Amino acid sequence: MQSNLLVSSGLLLKKLRLKHGFCQQYVASYLNMSRNAYAKWESGKTDIVLYKLFKLLHLYEISISDFFRKISSAESE
């Protein structure tokens, strides 16, 4: 069973990626991982590796606190 946090964080990653105009392959290459593995993050099927999350947040120019704040507000809607 997928946790709400995992699904919410995946949805937020997808939203940020689309906002910046990136395809999954670009982001996966930036993180040195396969597109399929990255797609599983966005769909909430697998856990997000913390150090790669920090790389993503740097790419998207968002702080870790803002990232989790956005997840919390999305879950409460």
What features would you describe in this structure?
This protein is mainly alpha-helical and 77 residues long. It has one domain (4-75): Orthogonal Bundle (434 Repressor (Amino-terminal Domain)), CATH 1.10.260. Helix content is 70%, strand content 0%. It has 5 helices and no strands. It has helices spanning 4-19, 24-30, 35-42, 50-60, 64-75. The longest helix is centred in the first third of the chain and has 16 residues, at 4-19. It is globular and about 30 Å long. The model has no long low-confidence stretch (mean pLDDT 90).
**What is the count of distinct domains?**
1
CATH class: Mainly Alpha
Q: From the alpha-carbon coordinates, what is the Rg to the nearest angstrom?
A: 12 Å
Structural class: mainly alpha
Please give the count of helices: 5
The end-to-end span amounts to: 21 Å
Strand content: under 5%
Average pLDDT figure: 90
| Assigned CATH architecture | Orthogonal Bundle
- Here the CATH topology equals 434 Repressor (Amino-terminal Domain)
Question: Which descriptors apply to this entry?
Answer:
77 residues, mainly alpha, 434 Repressor (Amino-terminal Domain)
Brief description of this entry?
With 77 residues, the chain is an all-alpha fold. It is built from five helices and no strands.
